């Protein structure tokens, strides 16, 4: 006996025939007791880490022509990545390339090659001052073969390991831009901080690199002309001709090349400032191009003593005149001349003394941090020079020099409202300078500097560092918490429901630019038009106004409940007006519009009452349905679809539904009626496929059907033309995690990429091929409206889904094999509409969105028409996903943040003017709801008691749920640097509009400690907190209304994090890592001191910890503690709770690119990922409810942590070990292997602490480049790869696989599963 059943195979649900004997046999074997891990043995598991949000902190901003002279490119360089963006004629940046596979930190960077603006240059050279950037073909020079186009400049990166990497861009065989790299190894691997200093001479023929002391090296470079010739014949590029090192005695404080005298271009001048015995000297080396560097640097020069006031110059700025330079010191600005003959001459320069601005953070006067030389015509620099000089608090001065008096004058430009770091530069754009101001605290800015006109803000440079703390809106804080603070139970992941994703908020910036940043990821869509019509509408269309010939550029038709409206939009989006009756003759505005189509043949509008046709001759004709259909009865039209002049409408008379079709042909007097089909059920949606097949969604008896009929069909829908979608979905998709057993009616239908996509009223998106349903995914709980537009500048359709008031962009998937799902990592992204003038604003709710043809010249964005309540928006959707963070200003420096589920707000510790206080922020509006009160007078005050002390600092924030009998109190815990443990009470005060205000006051406090209170945690009857190196247990005395200490414990170093687990206290100390202490039994406990139970066997400079599940989420004794340290390490510790006195065991260790400052858990995955990402392929749930484990770093980047069982760890680590030897995946740090038979790539658990770590960023490169087949080209590797795949989940996913392609397809699916976005 056999029957059909649904089984989960290969990552998807399939229908199989199962014999009853097999089930009986399987059940009989499953009666054996499951092997349990010994409670005294550490679990075996691995850790996969990957970067989910890259940092946008900038170290350098360099204008560089990496493609051709025509392209105004700029390089944004961080610690580990390079982003190349192009400055457009509209002043906006668009990203064109990114590289982050360097394998080492970027220590320094500069531009190699020259680019001059010459007055006599022609358009082909692209360097004439009169060349307008909007007149340049964006593809000019990029479609040429590599033999033709060589850029005028390259980017030089000096890595922390000492290697020098030269980069430029070219267009690859696939049409995409790619980096061309050439690496020059460090001359000495034992150097300390090579590239600490970097300088390039004005001719770009020599580069000097210096360590912090004792050593520098000069590189002689090949000329750009010779490199271009080598590139033209596909020869290997060798930018470095020779290398000459030189030792010096002392600290190398500055290194810079000076400009030669006019007419002496071969003269090279290298300047060093060396500090020895607390005195600085200026040393110069001179030579001519081509001289033997071994002779030039043969001996160490003594140099000349620097004046006392210029001993420690912050900046050395070489001038193009007189071989002079400007020395910028904290005390004085001086110009140095006579650098080559005799002792140098320093002349002090008087400059305007501007007081510190509100962006200044330090205690001393603000310092000059950066300078930039603007582009000018070549003759200008022969006798003159000019620079922009920037101060850290936003002050910029323009300095001019000439050949007669060195410094001619200085002009105060303006005070820019941002902090300015050394990432500061100037670009040339349409006769004006464009200043780019990078910031170390908060966002930077882009400003246009037009001549004799006010400065113009073009945009901001995103930055949310420094980031020291973050929080999620997850109601749970631990991995196995029984219930939330509001009493909601934690359900195991198999029983959980689809839920709204948790949000992530982090502290960002300092001083006036401090903020709480909400982390969001997806496609940024800047709002170009925001118009409030005043009345709600459900759909909109945008078309060119050519068919009317009026002054408007575009028309927008709005469909409302009883009528339609027409808006006239000019080209610049200013003065949008509603059309008058005289301007709306080409439309029917008396009834709701159901469908519209615009083409070269004219405009077709279908409303509930009329069909309106406007031809190319601008003549408009109107037709009633009864005239088209020739019906005498009443016809009520409910829906319509148009494609290439073919029209289908659904109409009902009484309870009977019909689908009518007709064709509108240019030149004919009336539409051609095709036919009518009666439908058994309610038609809920209508569409036309590319072959003009009519697709109709039908709802009948609680079931969903899809009907297909030809355009000319007459009669009744045949049973074979109607498919039961409700039944088909149950056969291919797992039941909804919300417990729903069915899907809602079809709300929308579109055709794209050879598939039919259905959007349901219950939030599902169903993908069909023919009559087969490939997948059904949940996008939300409200109706999923799908739109499809085929844009003029791309062959790919633009598919958008609006659901749950969000907008999602669907993309074509790249299939790896027909038997397996294609990769899903990049096929859907949430679209975030952003108001560039208000970065704190929430995105507007989206009810409907459709891509429109609006700006064909902007191929880097897609215009989208959005319906948002009573508003119509036009947004410009970018194509490259990335962070779209939202910043909530707090008016100070935020240092701590938590999310209070009880108060439904963010609680942040903020330092304003050096005084600590609290802010209670509404996550929706960013409003500070807090109102501090004096406990005695109940009146509002500036600070509650215990806070507001100058120089004090809040070290910790937390919530405390205190329970006594049947009464519960909720408090906020605040511990400070000044030795105070403050318990804060809160109450809500309702108001007419908006969320309630939060009144808060000091309820209790313990003060007088002579050391800081580093951490605190509450339990039901008391508090535990660490003062200095002492941990205190306090209980609440309700009679005396104070905290009473009943136990203490001395640690080896301060504990910055405390946690209760399994009756023990976990204390994470700054020098001794994790210490587990026997906790309390109550105030009557006879023991007055805690007892150490377990300790980390390794000494770590620990920062933070989080406890996660082990191999069995239901085992409270098998948990793992993740510990982050200051050396960029993360360790996984298993605590042997049942063996007191035994040290913890290190299960795994990981070395990350940057230190983790905080761990948090959160269920952050988008709704469409939640049902698809249940534990499989050997992934272990990190918490009982399968939440994500996230970690944040000081630079604002975010890491994701995933636990692995041994089988999947072995497979992923095997791939990583091979990738470590591959130049494609690790171009600069790979270990070349000539003979793999003598090199083992087999994962080993002997040294498992480090090898149990898997680098997800490296695996992501393997996935994106489809590199597995090339990595496993050696036969033995491929054989072992198949064996490891067979070992995943005991061969569950490889059952029935035999072909090589099938195994690779499965492997790509596994990589994609582990590397999908989590935000």
From TrEMBL:
UniProt xrefs under Pfam families: Beta-prop_RSE1_1st
Name of the protein described by the UniProt record: Mono-functional DNA-alkylating methyl methanesulfonate N-term-domain-containing protein
UniProt-listed PANTHER family: DNA REPAIR/RNA PROCESSING CPSF FAMILY
Gene3D superfamilies: YVTN repeat-like/Quinoprotein amine dehydrogenase
Lineage: Eukaryota, Fungi, Dikarya, Ascomycota, Pezizomycotina
Annotated InterPro entries: Beta-prop_RSE1/DDB1/CPSF1_1st (IPR018846), RSE1/DDB1/CFT1 (IPR050358), WD40/YVTN_repeat-like_dom_sf (IPR015943)
RSE1/DDB1/CPSF1 first beta-propeller domain sequence ranges: 59-449
């Amino acid at each position: 006996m056999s029957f059909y059943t649904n089984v989960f195979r290969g990552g998807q649900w399939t229908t199989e025939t199962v014999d009853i004997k097999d089930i009986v046999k399987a059940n009989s074997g499953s009666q054996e007791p499951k092997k349990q891990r010994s409670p005294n043995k550490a679990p075996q598991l691995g850790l996969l880490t990957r970067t989910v949000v890259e940092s946008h902190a900038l170290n350098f901003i360099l204008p560089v022509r990496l493609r051709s002279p025509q392209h105004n490119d700029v390089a944004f360089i961080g610690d580990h990545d390079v982003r190349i963006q192009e400055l457009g004629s509209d002043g906006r940046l668009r990203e064109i390339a990114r590289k982050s596979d360097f394998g080492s930190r970027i220590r320094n960077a500069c531009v190699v090659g020259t680019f001059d603006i010459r007055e006599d240059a022609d358009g082909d050279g692209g360097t004439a001052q009169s060349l307008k950037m909007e007149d340049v073909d964006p593809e000019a020079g990029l479609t040429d073969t590599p033999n033709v186009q060589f850029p005028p400049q390259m980017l030089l990166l000096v890595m922390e390991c000492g290697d020098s990497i030269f980069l430029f861009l070219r267009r690859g065989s696939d049409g995409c831009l790619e980096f061309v790299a050439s690496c020059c190894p460090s001359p000495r691997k034992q150097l300390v901080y090579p590239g600490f200093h970097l300088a390039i001479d004005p001719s770009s023929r020599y580069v000097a690199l210096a360590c912090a002391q004792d050593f520098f090296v000069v590189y002689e470079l090949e000329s750009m002309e010779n490199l271009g010739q080598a590139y033209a014949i596909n020869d290997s590029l060798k930018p470095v001709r020779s290398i000459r090192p030189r030792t010096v005695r002392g600290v190398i404080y500055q290194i810079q090349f000076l400009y030669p005298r006019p007419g002496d271009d071969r003269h090279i001048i290298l300047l060093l400032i060396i500090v020895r015995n607390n005195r600085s000297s200026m040393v110069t080396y001179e030579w001519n191009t081509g001289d033997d560097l071994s002779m030039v640097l043969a001996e160490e020069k003594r140099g000349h003593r620097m004046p006392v006031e210029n001993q420690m110059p912050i900046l050395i700025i070489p001038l193009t005149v007189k071989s002079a330079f400007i020395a910028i010191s904290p005390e004085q600005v001086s110009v140095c001349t006579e650098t080559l003959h005799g002792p140098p001459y320093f002349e002090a320069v008087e400059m305007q003394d501007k007081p510190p601005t509100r962006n200044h953070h330090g205690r001393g006067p603000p310092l000059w941090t950066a300078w930039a030389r603007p582009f000018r015509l070549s003759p200008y620099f022969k006798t003159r020079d000019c620079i922009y000089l920037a101060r850290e608090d936003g002050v910029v001065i323009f300095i001019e020099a000439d050949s007669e008096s060195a410094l001619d004058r200085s002009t105060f430009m303006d005070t820019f409202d941002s902090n300015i770091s050394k990432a500061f530069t100037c670009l040339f754009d349409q006769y004006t300078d464009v200043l780019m101001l990078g910031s170390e605290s908060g966002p930077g800015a882009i400003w246009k500097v037009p001549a004799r006109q006010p400065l113009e803000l073009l945009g901001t440079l995103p930055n949310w560092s420094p980031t020291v703390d973050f929080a999620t809106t997850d109601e749970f804080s631990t991995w196995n918490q029984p219930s939330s603070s509001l009493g909601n139970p934690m359900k195991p992941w198999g029983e959980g429901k689809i839920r709204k994703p948790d949000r992530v908020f982090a502290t960002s910036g300092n001083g006036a630019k401090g903020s709480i940043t909400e982390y969001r990821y997806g496609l940024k869509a800047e709002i170009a038009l925001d118009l409030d019509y005043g009345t709600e509408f459900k759909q909109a269309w945008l078309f060119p106004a050519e068919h009317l010939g009026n002054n408007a550029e575009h028309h927008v038709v709005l469909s409302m409940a009883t009528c339609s409206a027409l808006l006239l939009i000019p080209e610049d989006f200013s003065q949008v007006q509603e059309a008058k009756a005289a301007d709306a003759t080409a439309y029917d505005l008396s009834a709701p519009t159901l469908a519209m189509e615009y083409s070269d043949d004219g405009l077709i509008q279908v409303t509930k009452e009329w069909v309106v046709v406007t031809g190319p001759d601008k003549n408009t004709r109107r037709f009633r349905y009864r005239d088209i259909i020739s019906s005498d009865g009443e016809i009520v039209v409910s829906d319509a679809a148009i494609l290439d002049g073919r029209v289908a409408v659904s109409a009902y008379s009484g309870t009977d539904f019909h689908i009518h079709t007709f064709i509108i042909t240019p030149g004919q007097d009336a539409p051609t009626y095709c036919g009518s089909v009666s439908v058994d059920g309610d038609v809920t949606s209508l569409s036309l496929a590319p072959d003009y097949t009519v697709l109709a969604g039908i709802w009948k008896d609680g079931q969903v059907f899809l009907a297909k009929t030809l355009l000319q069909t007459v009669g009744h829908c045949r049973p074979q033309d109607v498919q039961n979608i409700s039944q088909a979905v149950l056969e291919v998709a797992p039941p909804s995690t919300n417990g729903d057993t069915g899907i809602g009616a079809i709300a929308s239908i579109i055709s794209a990429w050879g598939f039919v996509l259905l959007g349901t009223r219950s939030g599902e998106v169903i993908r069909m091929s023919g009559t087969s349903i490939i997948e059904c995914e949940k996008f939300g709980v409200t109706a999923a409206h799908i739109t499809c537009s085929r844009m003029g500048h791309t062959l790919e359709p633009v598919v958008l889904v609006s659901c749950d008031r969000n907008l999602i962009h669907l993309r074509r998937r790249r299939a790896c094999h027909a038997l397996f799902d294609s990769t899903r990592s990049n096929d859907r992204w949430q679209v975030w509409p952003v108001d560039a003038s208000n970065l704190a604003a929430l995105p507007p709710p989206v009810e409907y969105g459709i891509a429109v043809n609006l700006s064909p010249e902007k191929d880097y964005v897609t215009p989208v028409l959005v319906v948002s309540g009573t508003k119509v928006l036009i947004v410009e959707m970018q194509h490259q996903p990335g962070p779209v963070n939202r910043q909530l200003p707090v008016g100070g420096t935020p240092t701590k943040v938590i999310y209070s589920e009880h108060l439904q707000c963010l609680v942040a510790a903020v330092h304003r003017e050096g005084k600590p206080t609290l802010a209670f922020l509404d996550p929706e509006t960013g409003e500070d709801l807090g109102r501090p009160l004096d406990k005695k007078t109940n009146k509002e005050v500036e600070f509650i008691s215990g806070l507001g002390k100058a120089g004090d600092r809040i070290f910790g924030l937390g919530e405390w749920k205190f329970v006594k009998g049947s009464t519960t109190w909720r408090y906020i815990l605040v511990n400070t640097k000044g030795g105070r443990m403050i318990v804060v009470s809160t109450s809500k005060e309702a108001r007419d509009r908006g969320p309630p205000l939060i009144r808060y006051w000091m309820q209790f406090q313990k003060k007088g400690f002579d050391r800081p209170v580093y951490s605190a945690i509450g339990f039901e009857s008391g508090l535990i907190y660490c003062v200095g190196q002492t941990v205190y247990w306090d209980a609440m005395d309700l009679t005396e209304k104070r905290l009473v200490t009943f136990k203490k414990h001395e640690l080896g170093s301060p504990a910055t994090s405390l946690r209760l687990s399994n009756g023990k206290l976990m204390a994470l100390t700054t020098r001794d890592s994790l210490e587990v202490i026997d906790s309390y039994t109550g105030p009557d406990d006879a023991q007055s001191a805690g007892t150490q139970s377990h300790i980390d066997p390794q000494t770590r400079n620990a920062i933070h910890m989080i406890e996660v599940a082990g191999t069995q989420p239901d085992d409270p004794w098998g948990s793992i503690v993740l510990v982050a340290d200051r050396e960029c390490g993360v360790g996984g510790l298993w605590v042997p709770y049942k063996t007191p006195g035994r040290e913890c065991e290190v299960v795994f260790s990981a070395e990350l690119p940057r230190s983790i400052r905080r761990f948090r858990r959160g269920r952050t995955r988008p709704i469409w990922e939640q049902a698809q990402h249940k534990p499989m392929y050997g992934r272990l749930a990190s918490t009982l409810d399968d939440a994500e484990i996230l970690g944040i770093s000081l630079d604002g980047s975010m890491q994701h942590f995933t636990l692995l069982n041994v089988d999947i760890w072995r497979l992923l680590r095997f791939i990583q070990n091979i990738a470590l030897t591959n130049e494609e995946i690790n171009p600069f740090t790979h270990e070349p292997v000539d003979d793999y038979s003598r090199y083992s790539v087999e994962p080993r658990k002997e040294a498992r602490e480090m090898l149990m770590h898997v680098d997800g960023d490296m695996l992501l490169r393997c996935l994106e480049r489809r590199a597995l087949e090339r990595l496993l080209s050696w036969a033995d590797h491929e054989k072992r790869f198949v064996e490891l795949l067979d070992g995943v989940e005991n061969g569950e996913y490889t059952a029935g696989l035999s072909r090589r392609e099938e195994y690779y397809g499965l492997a790509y699916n596994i990589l994609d599963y582990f590397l999908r976005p989590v935000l």
